[in-house]
Amino acid sequence: MNSNPAGDSPAPMGTHAILMVDDEPQACKWFARMYGDEFTVLTAGSVDEALALLEQRGQEVAVLLTDYAMPVRDGVTLLSEVRQRFPHVARLLVSAYADKDVAMSAVNQGHVEAILEKPLDEALTRQVLREALASSVRRAREQALIERRAATLRETLGFLAHEVTTPLATVRGYLAAMRERHRDLPEGEAGMAHIAQQKPGEVLKMIEAAQRRADYAQSLVSTFVLTARDAYRRDASESLLASDLVGAVRDEYPFDGDEAQWLTCDLAADFRLPGRRDLLYLVLCTLVKNALLALRSDLPGEPGVLIALLRAVPAPGLPEQAAICVSDNGPGVPPDVLQRLTKEPVTTRADAGGSGMGLLFCRRVMTTLGGSIDVRSEPGQGTAVTLYFPSTDDSKPEEAP
């Protein structure tokens, strides 16, 4: 790889550079020439110069190798600051035999991970650099994974808070309506109460609808608890059939009135999903909810929502992939809105509390899984949202014995 003294053009993004710090220019040049054939080498002549370079190009640097004896501020001071400000960087110290006590103190204090003694042994130095580089890359990947999982949890929590608000608001509305109609009966009928009905069976329907929504809200909360519990496991995946996911949504979603009769499912092309039920359950519930709301806004003669498992090509030139498609025969999506869906928060139901975050959340989940989402619609012809899943060796379910 190329050697790059400080001040030269930056090393290509994605490389893992070794930063050599020594106040002797010849030592820096020798190091870059000796090890530049295997590593990307950056050099600095002082602690301040090294810290300035790290401020500009810290993401390129994986390993810091510094001499101990330098004027103004020594190598241990540099290692201490780097440990605090750039924790992903592996820290190595070069010292003469006379500095050995200081070097050992640096090791004991955790400022340095290894010591190399002058003059540097080429074979030993290469091996130490390789190990330090691998350690730094591993730490950087683990940190990125933690940050990505934390971001997913934050997004899921925000989406969950929005989704739970709707069923809970409906429950509050039903309870408020029954409270307004509640009347205590005369003393002779102690323990009895009366709730006025505008039509037969109305109160029972409100109670049943409130219970469905409370159950649905509970299922959403349970889903988030699973997500939070498994977020930091190294492997939280489990085998899940797409048909099982569809069945869970069909059984647990709080359909209103005759909405459950609008839903049909085609599960013939079943496959295994890459992950567990939690986030995918939220995604599928969101798509079903959007389809039902679209139908309610402009009810056709025979409203219908279809959840189909299929294999399809997401774009020309790409291989066929397993997919779940949720389609409806509602009014469709205006072309100007369709272009922005899954790219920015946009909704046609702002007056009903819509935020436009639902499809963005679905897109984030699918992207995290290595899949994609496609929305197609024609005004007056309904809408179809397709979730494409990455190809896996076990995408097809095993045959029952």
Provide a brief overview of the structure.
With 401 residues, this protein is an alpha/beta fold. It has helices spanning 25-35, 47-57, 75-85, 100-108, 122-181, 202-230, 242-252, 259-262, 277-297, 335-338, 357-368; strands spanning 3-5, 17-21, 40-44, 61-67, 90-95, 114-117, 182-184, 193-195, 240-241, 263-266, 272-273, 305-312, 321-328, 372-377, 383-388. The protein has three domains: 3-120, Rossmann fold, CATH 3.40.50; 146-186 and 193-236; 237-401, 2-Layer Sandwich (Heat Shock Protein 90).
Fold topology:
Elements: E1 3-5, E2 17-21, H1 25-35, E3 40-44, H2 47-57, E4 61-67, H3 75-85, E5 90-95, H4 100-108, E6 114-117, H5 122-181, E7 182-184, E8 193-195, H6 202-230, E9 240-241, H7 242-252, H8 259-262, E10 263-266, E11 272-273, H9 277-297, E12 305-312, E13 321-328, H10 335-338, H11 357-368, E14 372-377, E15 383-388
Parallel strand pairs: 1-3, 2-3, 2-4, 4-5, 5-6, 10-12
Antiparallel strand pairs: 7-8, 9-11, 12-13, 13-15, 14-15
Helix pairs in contact: 2-3, 5-6, 5-11, 6-9, 7-9, 9-11
Keywords: Kinase, Phosphoprotein, Transferase
EC number: 2.7.13.3
Domain Response regulatory: 17-133
